[in-house]
Amino acid sequence: MVRLVMILLGVDYLRTRWRSLRIVGWLSVLVGAAIFIDALDNALYFPITPFALLLLLEGLCTLAVAWTGMGGQRTLRYVKGFAFCFAASLILAGHHHGHFVLSMIFGTLFLADGLLQIVSARVVRYRTWRLAMIGGGVEIALAIFFFQPFPTHYVGTVPYCLGLGLMFGGWNLILLSTRVRRLASNPAVAANGAAEDEAADAHAARAQAAASAAPSGRPVTLEWDGPPAADEAALTVHVWTPVGSAKGEARRQPIVDRYIAAVDRNGVISTGHAALESPEGIYISLYPGVEIDRSPDDFARLLRATRENDVPGVFQPDYKTESKAWCPSTVQVRIRNYDPVRLRRFWDAYRQDTTYNLTHRNCSSSVSRALEAALEGASARVWSSVGGWRPFLRVITTPELWVAAQLRKRAATMAWTPGLTLDYARALSMLADPRPSGWVKMARLAVRRMMHSRQQWREEALNATAVQAGQTAERGVASGPVRD
C-alpha cells in the first residue's frame, strides 16, 4: 500500500509531511502493540462492546448510502456494510461462540492468502519470490495463532486484529515517511533502469510540448458524479477478458476464467489482453512477436518469470488497427484526471524494450505500469485547491484504496492478468476521479427532490387559482340579469 499511496499523492506532496507521517506511524505501532499485548490475558481493558457498537453503526450507515454508488462502487459499499454488521453481530452475540466464529474466519483468510502467495511465488519465480514466500509463511503463522484457543480461548480475537492492523498500518506509514524523505522522484512509477531514465529525460521536452498542444481536459471540479461522457477527453484502459476473447465457446470456470485464463471446448487457452489509449495519441499494447504455444502441457513452464521465457514482442500501432484485426475490447475503463506529460515520458522510455514475458512483462503489466505513471499525484492534484491533509485523509479512507492495494499485491506476487488489470483500473479510477460521498449524494438528492416538490406544489397552486378564477367568472356570467 505504501507504493500506491506514493503514486496517488506524489512524492512532492508527501515529502513536505514526512515528519508528521513518521510520528503518526510510531504512535500507531505503539498503540497497536499495547492493544495486542493487553489481549494476551483474560483481563481485557479494551472496550470491546463500544467498539462493536461503533462497528455496527458504521456498517448500517454504509448500507444506508450504498445505493447511491455506481457499479463496482455500489457493490463494494454493500460488501463493506454487510461485513461490518456481521462482524459486530458476532462480537455482540456472546462471550464465546461469536469470537470463535470470527477467529475461524480471520484464520481462514490468513491461511488462504499465505498459501496462495507461497504457491504463486514458487511457480512464477519472479525476482523477489523468496521474500514473498517468507511473507506467506508469516501469514500462515498468524492463521495458526487465530485457529488455536491459547491464550484467551478466542476472546481476544478482536483486539488481536485491531492491534495487528494498527501495527502494520503504522509500519507502512514509517516506511512511507522514510522513502519520501530521500526521494527526488517516485520509484513506484520509475523506469526499470538508468538507461530508461536517460531516455525519458531526453524526451521530456518533446512530451511537454505534445501535452500542451493536445487538449488536456483537466478537471476543474473536486468530484464527478459518474464516469466520463463518450465525447469527453479521458484515458482509456481497454480489456479483452479471457472469456470474451476466446476463439470458441469457453468452459465456464468461476474466478479462474475471470482472473487467469479461459479454456474453450477444443482445449485452447485464452488469457485475454489489455491495452491503454490516451487522447494525445499514445497507445500501449504489448503482444508477443511470435504466437506462444499455450497448450496445457507447456503452460506451467511458461508461467515462470525467468529469462528463458523472454520472447520478442511488438507494440500494436493503435486501437482501431488492433480491434479490426482481432475484435473490439470487452470492457473499457475511462479516467479524466491523469498527467499526459508523465505518461508520455513513461512511454518514450518503455517502448525502447520490446521484450515480452508471459508473467513478468506482458500486456497487462505494461498497462498497469503506464496507468500508474499517468496517475502519479492524481489525488493531490484534484484536491490541490483545498490543500493540507485533506488529500491524504481522503485517499486512505477511500475503500477503493484497500481494494487496489490488495490487487497490486496479488499481481506483484503472481502476475498481472487482464482481469486483475481491469479491477485495478476501476479502483484507481475511483481514486483519481473521486465520486461524492454517499451522504453528500443523499443530501443532494433530498434537496433536489424538495426543490422539485416545491416547484410542483407552486404550479399546482397556480393552476388551482386559475381554475377557481375561471369558475367564478362563469358563475358570474350565468347569474347575470336576463333582459327582454
Structure explained in plain terms:
The chain is about 60% helix and about 5% strand. It folds into two domains: about 1-180, no CATH class; about 195-430, no CATH class. The chain has about 475 residues and is of the alpha+beta class. The strands form three sheets. It has a four-stranded antiparallel beta sheet with strand order 6-5-1-9, with helices on one face. A three-stranded antiparallel beta sheet has the order 2-3-4. A three-stranded antiparallel beta sheet has the order 7-8-10, covered by helices on one side. The longest helix has about 40 residues, at about 440-480. The chain contains 20 helices and ten strands. The N and C termini lie far apart (about 100 Å). α6 runs antiparallel to α7. It comes from Paraburkholderia ginsengisoli.
Helix and strand composition category? alpha+beta
The profile of the biggest β sheet is: 4 strands, antiparallel
Mean pLDDT: 79
- How many independent structural domains? 2
Q: What low-confidence regions span 5 or more consecutive residues with pLDDT below 50?
A: 191-220
Care to give the gist of this entry?
The chain has 484 residues and is an alpha+beta fold. It has helices spanning 2-9, 11-15, 18-38, 48-65, 72-93, 97-124, 129-147, 157-182, 194-202, 204-213, 256-259, 296-302, 319-325, 340-350, 363-374, 378-382, 390-396, 399-413, 418-432, 438-478, and strands spanning 235-240, 250-251, 262-264, 269-270, 273-277, 283-284, 286-288, 311-315, 331-335, 355-356.
